[in-house]
Structure formats: structure tokens, C-alpha cells
Design a protein that fits this description.
mainly alpha, globular
């Protein structure tokens, strides 16, 4: 767990800010802000705890991206009201999360092939990765609809337009994540998400024991 936190200064900064904000909110009686700050702080630690529980080594970049996403979604989105202040905030987060789930879907399927890039059909694996990410996005939209209908929330905001925009952005982000997996299997060295895949495979050799040395 601690290898993803050590020298991860972006995570340090976010956690320090949330701890300070939580303390100030408790002293000043801003209970909603205190709850959101505490929830963000707790949820941001879950990826590291999950990795430790299942003995998975997360690349530092993976963990930092996850913490930043949770911070941007929960704290900045709710306390900072970024969803209302910036029209593109929700779109950016949907696209980023879909790309992340596309990468996660690829790594899971690739793990079933034990890291053998020559046995894993690139198109098929990329398609499954894409479907996995799109499914997660669709389930989230169903959740938003259910919360609006059952509890009177306004998670969908503009209704059908918001939902369809989110689904389109999810597809675009999922396509990027799936494409990264495809090009990785093709042996392309393009950096970015592909470099993140290479680092994850390198750190978790026991899960990808048939990976070639250059991975």
C-alpha cells in the first residue's frame, strides 16, 4: 500500500487540503462541508486499500489519478459547485472515468491471458474493454435516474440531454482506453495510457507471468 503513497506529492497536497478543510469545517459548524471532506478523504484511500487487500501493486500515476478524480468529483463538484460553475466539468470527468475503466477492463482481460500478448487477439480484447467501460457508464446513468425518481434528486440535471451527452462522452473515453490496450498488444510505444499499462504489467509480473521481457 505504502509504495503508491511514498513521494506522491499530489496526493499529499490533496489529503493535507482535505484534512485542513475538515478541521475548519468542524470548528465553524459547517457540517455538510465537513461530511463531504471526510467522505472524499476516506474514499480517496480506497484504491490503495483495495490494492493492498488483493496484493496488487498500483503504479503511482494510477493512484494519483484516482485520488484526483475522487477529489474533483466529490469535493470540487459539490463543495466547490464546479458542476454549475463550469459546464464542461461533468463532461471531463465522465470522459476521464470512461477511459480509466477502459484501461481497467483491458488489464483484467489481459490478465486472463496471463500477459501473453501473442495469444490475446487485439481487436477482441479492445472490444471487451470498450464494452466494460460503456457498461459501467450506463449503470451509472441508471443510478442517477433512480435517485432522481425515487428521492427527488437532480443528478440528471437537463434530463435526456444530460444522459445522452454523458453516454456519448463515455463511449468516447472508453474508445480511448480500449485503443490504448489495442496498440499495447500491437507493440506500439506511444506513451500516455500505453505507458501506464506497461508499468502496471511490470509491477504485477505474477499476474502476467507470460509477458515478454520488453513489457
Amino acid at each position: 500500500m505504502w509504495h503508491v503513497i511514498r513521494r506522491n506529492y499530489a496526493v499529499y497536497a490533496i489529503w493535507a487540503f482535505l484534512t485542513l478543510e475538515l478541521s475548519v469545517a468542524l470548528v465553524t459548524g459547517r457540517w455538510t462541508t465537513a461530511f463531504v471532506a471526510a467522505a472524499t478523504l476516506g474514499l480517496s484511500a480506497l484504491p490503495a486499500l483495495f490494492a493492498a487487500r488483493f496484493d496488487i501493486r498500483l503504479p503511482v500515476s494510477f493512484f494519483a489519478a484516482a485520488v484526483l478524480f475522487i477529489f474533483a468529483t466529490i469535493y470540487l463538484g459539490e463543495v466547490g459547485d464546479f458542476y454549475e460553475r463550469y459546464w464542461w466539468w461533468d463532461i471531463m470527468l465522465h470522459g476521464g472515468s470512461a477511459m480509466g475503466f477502459g484501461l481497467i477492463g483491458f488489464l483484467f482481460v489481459f490478465m486472463l491471458f496471463e500477459g501473453n500478448r501473442y495469444a490475446a487477439p487485439p481487436i477482441a480484447v479492445a472490444f471487451i474493454s470498450f464494452c466494460f467501460a460503456v457498461t459501467i457508464g450506463a449503470v451509472w446513468e441508471i443510478f442517477e435516474f433512480g435517485m432522481d425518481q425515487l428521492f427527488g434528486f437532480n443528478m440528471q440535471k437537463s434530463g435526456l440531454t444530460d444522459t445522452m451527452t454523458d453516454l456519448i462522452v463515455n463511449c468516447a473515453g472508453a474508445a480511448v482506453g480500449a485503443a490504448a490496450g489495442y496498440f499495447y498488444l500491437k507493440g506500439r510505444q506511444l506513451g500516455g495510457p500505453i505507458a501506464a499499462i506497461e508499468e502496471f504489467v511490470r509491477l504485477n509480473r505474477r499476474l502476467f507471468r507470460k509477458a515478454t521481457r520488453r513489457d
